[in-house]
Design goal:
single chain; mainly alpha
Length: 307
């Protein structure tokens, strides 16, 4: 049989690209679900997602500025009948939120500094420094992510107490001086740096530490910003470990101060003050997220985790 006598099916499929996908029986290319939606459909999905994400914050704000008697009424009008800001002043004074915010910010920044100080060299070593057992050791580091923090809370508390750091700010910081997730994210991003860049630095006479400081760290700033945001948020919102270590009210972190506000005001908690206190202690995390939003997105994309 000559090529001119080839079957129509063979001729129809001769020009098809090897990797193209077509729906069965129609001959049309398969279109992703999101691309097949119209602009109105995409807007509807985004509107539902944004509403679900913002509704708790909007209701918390409505509870904080609305009348106290309507705090627990789900059928109440979303727009309060009267607006007042006295709950913020009451929560600030009754919960000692000022010292708690200072303690939380200071502890979170100290934890962040130690995690970057230990995580950046470790990530660079796992990414570009060849040594025996590197893959095995990196697997051990990743395996620690599978251990729940509640499992290590008691051993850490025994160690901190034996060192004399219980009920101190140092005891709040030391157990979190390094983090496997930070090492993983930084290592993933550093692995994307072109080899030619590191070879050029080596040809210029830069050593390992100088290459890390002058070349790798500036190129890895998006990943460092991502790790910084995650580290600050996790440390600032940590509740279990400060509950074990911080026994004195003067070193209470924001979550502990808010928990104390729930039981300090009266036998039945004032939800208006709790909502106001929650908004107050949420401000630092919101500021950090808004400032580092662009670098946060670039860092997550660069590690390959967005795929």
């Amino acid at each position: 049989m000559t090529s001119e006598a080839a079957s129509p099916r063979h001729r129809a499929g001769a020009g098809r690209a090897p990797g193209s996908k077509r729906s069965a029986g129609t001959g049309r290319r398969a279109v992703p679900f999101w691309s097949s939606l119209s602009a109105a459909g995409r807007f509807g999905f985004l509107a539902v997602g944004i509403t679900a994400a913002l509704l708790p914050f909007v209701w918390m704000l409505r509870t904080a500025v609305g009348p106290p008697q309507n705090a627990l009424r789900l059928s109440a009008n979303p727009i309060p009948s009267s607006v007042g800001f006295g709950a913020f002043e009451n929560a600030w004074q009754a919960g000692d939120l000022g010292p708690a915010l200072l303690t939380g910010i200071g502890v979170s920044l100290a934890v962040l500094a130690l995690q970057l100080l230990t995580g950046i060299p470790a990530a660079y070593a796992f990414a570009w420094v060849p040594f025996r057992g590197r893959g095995l050791l990196f697997g051990v580091v990743l395996a620690t992510l599978l251990v729940p923090p509640q499992v290590t809370a008691v051993p850490n508390y025994v160690t901190i107490s034996a060192l004399g750091f219980a009920d101190t700010r140092v005891g709040l910081v030391l157990p979190f001086m390094t983090q496997a997730a930070a090492i993983f994210l930084l290592r993933q991003y550093m692995s994307t740096i072109p080899v030619s860049v590191l070879e050029a630095a080596r040809m210029d006479g830069l050593g390992t530490l100088r290459t890390l400081r002058t070349v790798v760290v500036p190129l890895s700033m998006p990943a460092i910003a991502t790790v910084s945001v995650f580290s600050f948020l996790l440390s600032f919102n940590e509740y279990l470990w400060p509950l074990l270590v911080a026994r004195s009210p003067d070193i209470a972190t924001p979550p502990l101060a808010l928990a104390g506000l729930a039981t300090r005001t009266s036998a039945f908690p004032d939800f208006t003050q709790l909502a106001a206190g929650s908004l107050i202690i949420s401000l630092p995390t919101l500021v950090v997220f808004v400032v580092a939003q662009r670098r946060l997105t670039a860092g997550i994309t660069g590690t390959g985790l967005a795929a």
